[in-house]
Amino acid sequence: MKIAVLPGDGIGPEIIEQAVKIISKLSPNAKLNFSPIGGAGYDSFGKPLPDETLKLAKESDAVLLGAVGDWKYDQLPRELRPERGLLKIRQELNLFANLRPAILFPELANASTLKPEIVSGLDILIVRELTGDIYFGQPRGIEENQDGDREGFNTMRYSVPEIERIAHSAFQLAQLRSKKVCSVDKANVLETTELWREVMISIGKNHYPDVELSHMYVDNAAMQLIRNPKQFDVMVTGNIFGDILSDEASMLTGSIGMLPSASLDQNNKGMYEPSHGSAPDIAGKNIANPLATILSVAMMYRYTFKLSGYAEMIENAVKLTLKQNLRTKDILDENAIEVTCSEMGEAVLRNLNI
Ligand code: IPM
Ligand code: MG
Question: Best mutation site among 6, 9, 79, 87 for ligand 1, i.e. most ligand atoms within 8 A of its Cβ?
Answer without folding.
Answer: 87
